[in-house]
Amino acid sequence: MDLVGGCRAFVSVSETGSFTAGAALARIPQPVASRRIAALERHFGERLFDRSTRRARLTPFGRDVLPSARRLVRLADAMEHDARRAKLRPMRVAVPDTCGVRALAELAAEARELAIHLEFRAAAPGERAELVRTGEVRAALTAVPAEDGGWSVPLGLAAVTPPPGRVVHLETLRTGRRGERAAPRRHVWIQPEDDVPHVRDRLLRVRDAVGLPPAQVAVAGSLTSAAAEVFASADLLLCSAAQAVELGVSWRPIGELTLARGYGVAAALGEDADRLRTVLREAVGRCLGAGE
């Protein structure tokens, strides 16, 4: 039986002295209140009210159990209140600092429609899982190999002047032979979000294979400093197509290899991870700049 519902009707009727007024106080129809109290009486095997008079008068048994019924109703109300507050408690998520303000705002707005309240903390790839471990966030979008992740973000090279052709080959960045008048050396900048082995090391292996000097493909201190180098020269930035659009530069895939960021979810609670992987999957993908 519904013990809480029965006690709520019992307390309301006892406080008003009327089944009709008590039902109104409990916000239920009068027949429902009567059925719930009757079920409570059957459960206890005793009458709660003396029905021989026009008013709903408590029996001695009813007076004895009324204090406990009131405590149960108060506890149920407190639990409902705590549950509502828990639903509104923000879920802090560590995200890449490549996620733009608008993309994060759209993700938060879509989550709110599902009664999920998100807050974000931008962090470097190596920090995000650690923030989950220390309890500073409830979940994190972690950097993983693209084939192991729930989201994949294709990477290419971007420059202010559109590179010729449909792809950029790293071998075309070699300077001229000794004695020839060489064009200024074009650097490829790796932003901190891609300073992870499954991205950085693959690109550096191609750099070495095509004979580029080590310094020609290097990790920048920040996305801002890397973008500044690109804006001030013919240098190229390793980035996603979505980032290239945001920065206003031209993007091409890399000719020698297919490169992508991969993202997974780390969370202290499985239900938090499931929310990001399932109901918010598409919104998270848009925020990361993942391909279709």
From TrEMBL:
Domain of life: Bacteria
UniProt entry keywords in alphabetical sequence: DNA-binding, Transcription, Transcription regulation
GO molecular function, one term: transcription cis-regulatory region binding
Chain segments annotated as transmembrane: none
Cross-referenced Pfam families: HTH_1 (PF00126)
Domain HTH lysR-type: from-to ranges: 1-59
Protein's UniProt keywords contain Transcription: yes
Family named by the database record: Belongs to the LysR transcriptional regulatory family.
Name of protein: LysR family transcriptional regulator
Natural source organism: Amycolatopsis vastitatis
